[in-house]
Design a protein that fits this description.
Elements lengths: L2 H16 L2 H8 L3 H15 L4 E3 L4 E3 L1 H26 L6 E7 L1 H8 L3 H7 L3 E7 L13 E5 L7 E5 L6 E5 L21 E4 L9 E5 L2 E5 L5 E3 L2 H9 L4 E5 L4 H5 L4 E3 L10 E6 L6 H10 L4
Parallel strand pairs: 3-4, 3-5, 8-11, 8-12
Antiparallel strand pairs: 1-2, 5-14, 6-14, 7-12, 7-13, 9-10
Helix pairs in contact: 1-2, 1-3, 1-4, 2-3
């Protein structure tokens, strides 16, 4: 490959990202004429138009879009190699961007963020809260955190939290008028406080006992998207709630909540940090994994 092509390809990718030659010039800290010359020279050498220009915008042609689609992973790897070389001079440093569900942020990460920041002051950790599963490569993330059961097989996954367990709870006042359920099917006769994911899907309550797994489409007059709010609604007597037991441990201990169906709620593996197996691991990500992993 002609080495001059490499810098021109980087300019092309920046123009496509910014949508203009001037924007790319600002991003690259070079003159707009240099940006235009680099793209024109590349098109001339390849013999194909890569960008469609108008008075208002610049967009890839079909050929340009195909080239950029294959080009982005290679440029990302080059950027990563350069960042890794810089980080290797001293301590792990730079931006580290993670996609994390709200529950994992509350239960697993938040209690230890202060310690991580103290241990690695040169890492800028950005946590984006998303309940849906996210393609970390497509979303521009270094890694993600999810429950192990939702991970894809081509991902490397490292466990970063203890086993977790669900808890079905309600206030004592609720059970003054309603019988305690003894089987998940009894929930059909109860007012349940339901959880809606950011995707819009309502969570189906999942139970397991002696190898039997049951999913219940719980019904009830209240739907929330925050576990803390669900737990508080249960304390206030609004109905039965199904949340991770960490959210209600204190309320169970002081008697504000009563637990039912405990034998149908076995513990399971907690949260994992995941990242692509084909991507070189940055020192900043390695530091995060080593700090938060179970036993770390």
């Amino acid at each position: 490959m002609n080495r001059a092509h490499l810098s021109q390809l980087a300019v092309l990718a920046t123009v496509a990202q910014c949508g203009s030659f001037r924007g790319a010039a600002r991003e690259l800290a070079i003159a707009p004429s240099a940006v235009s010359h680099a793209v024109s020279s590349l098109e001339a050498r390849l013999g194909v138009r890569l960008l469609a220009r108008s008075t208002r915008s610049v967009a890839p042609t079909e050929e340009g879009a195909q080239l950029l689609e294959r080009l982005r992973p290679a440029l990302s790897e080059i950027d990563l190699a350069l960042e890794t070389a810089v980080e290797a001079r001293d301590r792990p440093a730079g931006n580290l961007r993670l996609t994390v569900p709200r529950t994992a942020a509350h239960l697993t990460l938040t209690p230890r963020l202060g310690g991580f920041a103290a241990a690695y002051p040169e890492i800028v950790l950005e946590i984006v809260i998303e309940d849906r599963f996210t393609d970390v490569v497509e979303g521009g993330f270094d890694a993600g955190v999810r429950l192990g059961e939702s991970l894809q097989p081509d991902m490397i996954a490292v466990r970063i939290g203890p086993s977790i367990r669900g808890a079905v709870v309600a206030a004592p006042s609720y059970f003054e008028t309603m019988p305690k359920p003894r089987h998940p099917r009894d929930l059909a006769d109860h007012r349940c406080i339901r959880f809606r994911f950011s995707s819009g899907i309502l969570y189906r309550w999942e139970f397991e006992k002696d190898g039997e797994a049951i999913e219940i489409a719980a019904q009830g007059p209240i739907i929330l998207d925050e576990d803390h709010l669900i737990a508080q609604a249960a304390v206030d007597g609004a109905g039965l709630a199904f949340v991770f037991e960490e959210y209600v441990r204190a309320s169970l201990a002081d008697g504000r909540l009563v637990r039912v169906l405990e034998d149908w709620c076995p513990p399971f593996d907690g949260f994992f940090v995941y990242y692509p197996s084909r991507r070189q691991m940055r020192p900043a990500l390695r530091a995060f994994v080593d700090f938060f992993k179970v036993g770390g």
